[in-house]
Amino acid sequence: MSPLDATQERLVETYRKKATHYNVVSRLYPVPGYPQQALRRRAIRALRLRPGGTVVDLACGTGQNFPMIQQAIGPAGRIVGVDLTDAMLAQARRRAEQSGWSNVSLVQGDAADYAFPAEVDAILSTYALSHVPECGRVLADGAAALAPDGRLVVLDLKAPDDVPRLLARLGVAVGRPFGSIDEWLARRPWDGIHAAMQDALGDLTWSEPCFGTAFLAAGSRSASLRDQGDLAHAPGVQPVAP
Q1: Integer Cα distance of 55 and 166 in angstroms
Q2: How far, in Å, CA of 202 to CA of 238, rounded?
Q3: What pLDDT does 92 receive?
Q4: 44 — phi, psi (to 5°)?
Q5: How many whole angstroms separate alpha carbon 228 and alpha carbon 98?
Q6: DSSP readout, 196-216?
Q7: What digits encode the pLDDT tens for the residues 2-25?
Q8: Rounded to two decimals, what is the model's pTM?
Q9: What is the pLDDT of residues 195-209, one digit of tens each?
Q10: Contact present, 73 and 52 (Cβ < 8 Å)
């Protein structure tokens, strides 16, 4: 078994064990008092959703983002939830059925292999993409699938630039169930995510709330650097520094 397959298997088993109680225990993630739900709301606002829009929720888990997305897109919109773990998707399906949402489609699969629908209005990933080694390719594929004016938003955890000893110990405790925290810190996936979004999207914003323990990145296809290479030279446009 390759290291990548072993990591996937470990993630699936971890989330299978957590699936039944995930909606409760996730409120304590990564630590009690962390404003996880408030940051989710900020991420969804950054999508600038409209009624009738189509949203891909990448690594959707139990569908915790679904209620907030539904409020924005309404019954005429569509949510496509993608997740690697069958047990998490079972909880997401139960949530949709109990809420009477007929506009939710669920796909089991690895984000790295997912074929995004064409002309999707928005793509969201919360607290997941940093565990995907191929996150740069995932973001490039997602950006290419966006409709004009489509938005891509990533909310995830990161290590602060200056890590006090207490926070470092906390990071080890939080990251241990998902794989090697040392590998995660060495890989610095947030840097790869920043670079990939900067390459594939325009109008990129990047913030690091909670003392740099998280990041919220958002960009749009409307100002795609690939499709409108001269935009970077347009008056008033300030590109994000690498």
Answers
A1: 38
A2: 10
A3: 96
A4: -70, -35
A5: 44
A6: HHHHH-EEEEEE-HHHHTEEE
A7: 444 555 565 555 545 455 555 545
A8: 0.79
A9: 999 999 999 999 999
A10: yes
Spatial distance between the Cα atoms of 149 and 119, rounded to a whole number of angstroms: 10
CA distance 205 to 14: 32
Residue type, 106: L
Q: Which domains does the chain have, with CATH numbers?
A: 3-233 (3.40.50.150)
Cis preceding-peptide flag for 209 (omega within 30 of 0): no
Quote the distance between the C-alpha of residue 146 and its chain's center.
15
DSSP at 46: H
**What gap in Å lies between CA 220 and CA 237, rounded to an integer?**
14
**The pLDDT value given to residue 24:** 47
Pair 127, 100: CB distance under 8 Å: no
Joined together, the tokens standing for residue 189 give 């996936």
List the structure tokens of 206.
């990047």
Task: Tell the burial category of 73 from Cβ atoms under 10 Å away from its Cβ (0-12, 13-18, 19+).
Answer: buried
User: How far apart, in whole angstroms, are the C-alpha atoms of residue 9 and residue 201?
Assistant: 32
User: Partners of 55 in the beta sheet?
Assistant: 79, 122
Q: Which tokens go with 87?
A: 């047990």
Token pair for 62: 């139990």
Do the bridges between strand 214-220 and strand 146-157 make them parallel or antiparallel, or are there none, so unpaired? antiparallel
What amino acid occupies position 122? A
